[in-house]
Amino acid sequence: MLIIVFFSQIRSQVMKRFLTYFVSVLVIAISFSIAAKAQSETWIYQEWKNDAWVDVEKYILTYTPDKKPSNYESFKLVDGKWIPDSRYAWEYNTNGNLVLFKSESFSTGEWVTTYKVETKHDELGNEIETITYLTQDGELKPRHKTQSTYEGTNIIETISFFNEDGEWQVSMKYSYTYEKNTRTEVGQYVLEGEEYMNSTKTVIQYDDNGNELFEFEFNWDYMAEAWKENTKTSYEYNDKGLLTTTISESFQNGEWMKSYKNEISYNENGDPVEEIFYNANEDGEWVYDSKTLTNYENGEIIEYIDQNYEDGEWVNNTRNYRIGAVSVDEVANNIQLTTYPNPSSDFLNIDMLVTNLGNLKIQVISQSGQYIATVCDETAELGTKQFKVNLNNYSSGTYYLVINNGKNNSIRKFVVVK
Asked: What confidence score (pLDDT) does residue 32 get?
C-alpha cells in the first residue's frame, strides 16, 4: 500500500521507472554481509542556473544481487561539501518480501528516524498488514494501519485504521472487484458511525490484449444518492503494446473537459526516451508544459533531463545523471567514477565523484602493465570532476585506469578501437 500511495502522486511513467530505483526507493533491505556482490549506484541531481548545470544533491543507492533496494542515502552540497541529508533502509524476509522500511533525516549532527513501516505477509507472499510509525516528541508512535484479505493472490478488501489515544480506529475501507483475475473496480467507503458509506469508486476497462483503455472515477452524491462522474483517464498504445498516450479529463457542467496529456516515445529497444506533458488552455487546446528526456548506455539509464516550455522554447530545468554503478568495495574506498564511451577511438571521458579530501592521481597503463600517461595528479576538492583522455596516439587494445585518492586504489578497464 505504501508504494501505491506514493506512485499515485507521480504523473510521469518514465519517472516512475526511475524512482523504482530510489523509492520502490521507498521500500526494502538485506544485510551487506549477505550481499557480497551487491552494487551501488551514485546519481547527481543538478539544477540549470545561469546557462550551466549546478550540483545540488547526490544520491547513493545500494541494492541486492536480485536488484532490490537495500540502502539509499542523499547528500546536499553546501559550501562545496556533501552534507548528509536523508537515508532509507529496507529489510526483507527469507522469501524476499518486504518486512521493514525506515526513513531517517540528518539533524544537528545525528541521524533521526522520521518514520518506519512494518509489513506482514501470508504464506503466498500477500501483504496482509502494514503499520506506519511516525516520530512525535522524539518517539516513534504507531499512527496508521492497513489490513487486507485475499482470494488467492487477488486483493479483495483493505481496511484502513488510524491510532487515536493508543487505540486503533477504523477510518475507511476499500473493496476490489475482478473479472477473470483482472481488476475492474475499486470502491472506497468511509465509516460513519457503525456503517460504511459510499465515497468514491474507480471503474477500469481493458482491450482484448489486457491493456487498460479507460479509468473512470466517480464520487458519491449524498443528496441525489447516486454516483456522479468525476474524472476519466484514457490510454493509447503502439503496435508493440507500449503505452504512448495518456489523457486525463474532468467532468464539469455536464461535459468532459480536457485536463492534461502526456506522450511517450521509445527507442528501438522499447525503452522510453522522451515524455512530453501538455496542459489544456481555456480554449481546450493542448499546450506544452514540460518534458523528460532519458538517455541510456549499454541498455542502462544514465541520465534524466527535465525541461519546461517557456516563451516558445524548451528550457532546461533539472538533471539527474549517474556517476556510475560500482562495487561495494569501490564505495567503501570512496572511489566512484564512470567512463564513456567505452570502447572509444578518439576520447575517453571520465566523470568522478570525489567524496574525501586528498591527493587524486589517475594514470593509464597498458594490458602488460606499462605506464602510458598521467591523467590527473592534484589535490582534489569535493564534488564531481570531469577529465578527458586523448586517445589519438593510442593503439587498439585494452588499457586500465589506476586511481588513487590518497587512501585507496581502484582499477577501471577501457578499450580503444581504431
From this structure: 29
Asked if residue 286 lies in contact with residue 277, where contact means CB atoms within 8 angstroms, the answer is: no
Q: What is the pLDDT of residue 113?
A: 95
Tens digit of each residue's pLDDT (9 = 90 or more) over 312-322: 999 999 999 88
What is d(CA 341, CA 5) in angstroms, rounded to the nearest whole number?
39
**E strand residue ranges, 64-97:** 69-78, 81-92
How far is the C-alpha of 45 from the C-alpha of 23, rounded, in Å?
A: 15
Answer yes or no: are the C-beta atoms of 203 and 213 closer than 8 Å: no
| Spatial distance between the Cα atoms of 93 and 29, rounded to a whole number of angstroms | 9
Tell me the CA distances in angstroms from 408 to 43, 80, 358, 359, 411, one per residue in order: 22, 22, 11, 11, 11
Q: What is the pLDDT of residues 152-185, one digit of tens each?
A: 999 999 999 999 989 999 999 999 999 988 999 9
CA angle 289, 291, 292 (to 5 degrees): 155
What are 283's three cell numbers?
A: 480554449
Distance (Å, rounded) from C-alpha 69 to C-alpha 120?
19
Grid cell digits, residue 216 = 473512470
Nearest CA-CA partner of 389 in 357, 415, 356, 360: 415
Which of 361, 346, 348, 343 lies closest to 398, judged by CA?
343
Cβ-proximal residues to 347 (8 Å cutoff; 6+ apart), any chain:
388, 389, 390, 391
Cell numbers for 312 = 516558445
Q: Which residue has the cell 500477500?
A: 126
Expressed in angstroms, the distance from the first to the final Cα of the chain is: 53
Q: Which positions of the chain have pLDDT values less than 70?
A: 1-38, 324-336
Residue 346 carries which DSSP code?
S
Q: What is the pLDDT of residue 171?
A: 93
So what's the pLDDT on residue 325? 53
| Pair 405, 335: CB distance under 8 Å | yes
Q: Which three cell numbers stand for residue 104?
A: 531517517
Q: What is the pTM of this model?
A: 0.71
pLDDT value at residue 324: 56
Q: Measure Cα distances from 282 to 249, 259, 287 in Å.
A: 14, 10, 10
Q: Give the amino acid at 228.
A: K
Task: Return d(Cα 75, Cα 54) in angstroms, integer.
Answer: 14
